[in-house]
Amino acid sequence: MRTLNLEISLPCIPARHLLTLNPMGKITTHVLDTASGNPAAGVRIRLTQCGQILADTLTNSDGRCDSPLLADATPGPYQLIFSIGDYFRAQGTPSPFLEEIPIHFLVEPGRDYHVPLACSPYAYSTYRGS
After folding, report:
1. Residue 126: pLDDT band by 50, 70, 90 thresholds?
2. Which of 4, 40, 84, 88 has its CA 20 to 30 A from that of 12?
């Protein structure tokens, strides 16, 4: 029997790039009404993946969901749909410009995603929060 000795050199990978033991992450959000300067309570939010609804909930008085929209998000594409037109009509804005705001994003393995929405009746902004 012959023994083969191999020497392998691996590149140094910073710890922040290594996957955690759990390859799934969580998805959370919150909604801010920039016209009033307040959290947007009562906004309907749906989380979908490939056309399938994974979560359907309303924001609480702090503009947040009571729990993560998805606690075990597998890698891949997702979509958040904010029913913002209903919210602004309930606030007394008779004919808001925005009806639904869809946000498409990709989830990477082992990462959490906080996707907030800041909006007024006529504009919105989002970002990847922490």
Report:
1. very high
2. 4
3: how many CB neighbours lie within 10 A of its CB?
A: 4
54-64 CB burial, b ≥16 within 10 A, e <16: ebeeebeeebb
* pTM greater than the 0.85 cutoff: no
Q: Which domain holds residue 76?
A: 24-126
Q: Specify the number of domains making up the chain.
A: 1
Task: Please report the pLDDT score of residue 112 as a whole number.
Answer: 94
Q: What is the pLDDT of residue 23?
A: 67
Q: CB neighbours (10 Å) of residue 93?
A: 15
By CB atoms closer than 10 A (0-12, 13-18, 19+), residue 87 is: buried
- CATH code where residue 95 lies: 2.60.40.180
Q: Give the phi and the psi of residue 14 in degrees, each rounded to 5.
A: -55, 145
Q: What is the mean pLDDT of residues 24-39?
A: 95
Rounded Cα–Cα distance for residues 74 and 7 (Å): 35
